[in-house]
TrEMBL record:
<dbReference type="InterPro" id="IPR011598">
    <property type="entry name" value="bHLH_dom"/>
</dbReference>
<feature type="region of interest" description="Disordered">
    <location>
        <begin position="171"/>
        <end position="196"/>
    </location>
</feature>
<dbReference type="Pfam" id="PF00010">
    <property type="entry name" value="HLH"/>
</dbReference>
<keyword id="KW-0238">DNA-binding</keyword>
<dbReference type="InterPro" id="IPR036638">
    <property type="entry name" value="HLH_DNA-bd_sf"/>
</dbReference>
<dbReference type="GO" id="GO:0005634">
    <property type="term" value="C:nucleus"/>
</dbReference>
<dbReference type="GO" id="GO:0061564">
    <property type="term" value="P:axon development"/>
</dbReference>
<keyword id="KW-0539">Nucleus</keyword>
<protein>
    <recommendedName>
        <fullName>BHLH domain-containing protein</fullName>
    </recommendedName>
</protein>
<dbReference type="GO" id="GO:0007423">
    <property type="term" value="P:sensory organ development"/>
</dbReference>
<keyword id="KW-0804">Transcription</keyword>
<dbReference type="GO" id="GO:0070888">
    <property type="term" value="F:E-box binding"/>
</dbReference>
<feature type="domain" description="BHLH">
    <location>
        <begin position="73"/>
        <end position="127"/>
    </location>
</feature>
<feature type="region of interest" description="Disordered">
    <location>
        <begin position="1"/>
        <end position="22"/>
    </location>
</feature>
<dbReference type="InterPro" id="IPR050359">
    <property type="entry name" value="bHLH_transcription_factors"/>
</dbReference>
<feature type="compositionally biased region" description="Polar residues">
    <location>
        <begin position="1"/>
        <end position="15"/>
    </location>
</feature>
<feature type="region of interest" description="Disordered">
    <location>
        <begin position="38"/>
        <end position="67"/>
    </location>
</feature>
Length: 249
DNA sequence: TAGGCCATCTGGTCCT
DNA sequence: AGGACCAGATGGCCTA
């Protein structure tokens, strides 16, 4: 990369920053500038400017009246804002990754953005479905207690039909179409977008080989036996508990 | 080496 | 008018 100070921060816009460090939990612009060692990167040379019919907006007309210095100053300011915006977006993405039921750690490659979003969507769907099933089961237990008032009512969670429910949730998350060899793949690779996509296009074989496929309808990931809360002895449906489970923190 | 992923720059558009 | 948001373009890094 040529003389772009932004490149100084290449691959580091989502460093291992403490989420609670900066005001509002985000990496402040000043921090970022200090991190990058520059206020704003110079204009990247060699990039073709968009010229033609689109370049006739009022703002562009105004720019014609600006001096070169002012124009460059404005450009740097806008670039800096855009960088900050993207860094905030990445921070939010990191926050989302942290609560995803997926193995995390230094030896685990970070989920890509698209994978994070798709996994988050599936995770929300799974939790919603789990909540509905739980409501139904609680309703059943309550109804049983009404019909047998003499017997002590113990919500027999361990004896609950976990497996079918878990299976359904697994198929919800794992969409069993993702057949394919995988157990021999790298143990620390994140799930691919193809696998994670709930309505994703037909997954490419290369997109399916990352996660360990240990069951017929769900893929388990290293470091995390099963993200499905219903597979745990005690339901832990909150993201925090799942996070602690997966992180071992 | 090709492809995926990413950061950054940039201009256009929308919103306040 | 200025800022936020968006999408296209570009180039770097990394992995299979």
């Amino acid at each position: 990369m040529d003389s772009d100070t932004g490149s100084t921060c290449s691959r580091s816009s989502t460093p291992d920053l403490p989420m609670d460090s900066a005001v509002g939990g985000f990496f402040s612009e000043k921090m970022f500038q200090a991190y990058c060692g520059d206020e704003a990167g110079p204009i990247r040379p060699g990039r073709p400017r968009a010229e033609g019919p689109q370049a006739a907006s009022s703002k562009n007309r105004n720019r014609g009246e600006l001096s070169k210095e002012n124009l460059q100053e404005l450009r740097l300011k806008v670039n800096s804002r855009e960088r900050k915006r993207m860094h905030d977006l990445n921070q939010a993405m990191d926050g989302l990754r942290e609560v995803m039921p997926y193995a995390q750690g230094p030896s685990v490659r970070k989920l890509s953005k698209i994978s994070t979003l798709l996994l988050a969507r599936n995770y929300i769907l799974m939790l919603s479905s789990s909540l509905e099933e739980m409501k139904k089961l609680v309703g059943d237990v309550y109804g049983a207690s009404q019909s047998h008032p003499a017997r002590p009512v113990v919500p027999q969670l361990p004896q609950m039909p976990l497996h079918p429910l878990a299976q359904s949730l697994h198929s919800l998350v794992g969409n069993g179409t993702a057949g394919g060899p995988s157990a021999t793949q790298a143990p620390h690779s994140p799930p691919s977008a193809g696998y994670l996509g709930f309505h994703a296009p037909p997954p490419l074989p290369s997109l399916l080989k990352d996660p360990l496929h240990l069951t017929s309808s769900y893929r388990h990931f290293p470091g995390m036996p099963c993200p499905c809360a219903l597979c745990q002895p005690l339901p832990a449906t909150t993201a925090a508990s799942l996070h602690s489970l997966s992180m071992g923190k």
